[in-house]
Amino acid sequence: MYRIFEKHAGIIVFIIAIIVLFLLKNKLCMTKIENSLTDFLNIFSIFAGFLTTSISILYSIQDKDFIKIAKTSGAYQDLLKLIYKTIGWCVLSIVAVIIAKLITADSVKLIALSICFGALSAVILAGFLFIKLMCLNK
Length: 138
Description:
Elements: H1 2-23, H2 30-60, H3 65-73, H4 75-102, H5 106-134
Helix pairs in contact: 1-5, 2-4, 2-5, 4-5
């Protein structure tokens, strides 16, 4: 079950968020959502940079023993795939927020916010697994 969530965390959270946001659409303040989207634009730009840096770190320490062990178990390759996928989520969120800023329809803003929630879950998972791998270096 965890493996399924790990592979599809962004999509699962996106679907849950879009359902909840559209059910609560009439109770939400759209000006606050628009302000949140601006914040998410900044946040995901930073996260994309952090994730790119983490890939550089992983490639630079390939000769370490704990990385060699992680490579033989497949965890290293899984983490790299997850980081690349998470960078994709960050870029998708940035594009969605820009589109939501250009198109003033409320439904577009809710979809962009849902994408941001999906991306945030992917970033948290990738960060957690990256830290977990780095803790193996003892």
